Amino acid sequence: MPLTGARPLRFRGFSLPRLTALLPLPPLALPGLPSLPALAALPSLSALAALPPLPFLAALHAKAAGRVSPALLKATALEAAILAGHLVLYPSGIAQERRAAPVQPPSDAPRLPSEGRPPVLLVHGFIDNRSVFVLLRRALAQDGGRHVESLNYSPLTRDIRTAAELLGRHVEELCERTGHRRVDIVGHSLGGLIARYYAQRLGGDVRVRTLVTLGTPHAGTRVARLADAHPIVRQMRPGSAVIEELKEPAPACRTQFVSFWSDLDQIMDPLETACMDHPDLLAQNIQVTGIGHLALPVHPAVVTGIRQALDLTNPGADARQNPGGLTVA
Q1: Each residue's pLDDT tens digit, 255-285
Q2: For 223-257, what is each residue's pLDDT tens digit?
Q3: Which ranges constitute the DSSP H helices of the chain?
Q4: Predicted TM-score (pTM) of this structure
Q5: In what order do the strands lie in the sheet with 148-151?
Q6: Helix, strand, coil share of the chain (percent; to 5)
Q7: Which value, in Å, is the radius of gyration of the alpha carbons in the chain?
Q8: Most exposed of 103, 173, 184, 298 (fewest Cβ within 10 Å)?
């Protein structure tokens, strides 16, 4: 569905502004694109050499035999622009974030209940780093003074279970350092799958209040077959041992889940794999219309939806009353 003229929609009673007012779509002729080869050749970006084919090129190739819709062209241009910007920012996020205790307000300042605003931990996707969350982190930190941190896991990580254990150790340290019993997590792509495994399979639901996933292959994705040389990519395939573990009963899981999925996400095959479908989990699936995989952590409308989801006490339970979910367009 084209973005132009999209009606304002609501997320649990909060009005979402028109996307065209939030972020004017760039023209299709992007002056920065010719410089992409030079950026990719920078020594500090050598880790990106293993990336699968660019998703926006894959989308155009897939549609080459048919008619390419205006919505796809706009989404492709936006993906290209975001990729160019992310290539520039990527070196700044390679190093692990420095940890510091949160700034304590003056003793006479009014305080919200400690569990009302848990810390937010951001977890990136495959062969990425914390730089993908620059805009989201800024928006969350400005939203009522949330304490926001990012976790880098190594691109050499070979197992989702190992990454989930690392995440668990970091969550425990974060809770101890901030004085909170629970945290919220936002995971992009593979990062959401790692966080879900921690919450669902390793007892992390004791610590994770709300998990928001962005373009996460909850049921496995078939895209980029040539990337199967990497063992963690094989774990993201439908029918893998990890995906099958996540299908097992989890009646005691206390984490609330909110999954954003896009109708133009070229990394999800099929698209609905980014939806959470488990009878024991409290989960809400929110469809995002008109943007691709890379735009999910940076698009203003999605950022607004994430902030609103984290403000809800029971975002997953609310979905039981509105199982159809909502569309951000």
Answers
A1: 999 999 999 999 999 999 999 999 999 999 9
A2: 978 789 999 999 999 999 999 999 999 999 999 99
A3: 19-22, 36-40, 55-62, 70-89, 134-142, 160-178, 190-201, 231-234, 241-246, 300-311, 315-321
A4: 0.75
A5: 148-151, 120-123, 183-188, 208-214, 256-262, 282-288, 327-328
A6: 45, 10, 45
A7: 19
A8: 103
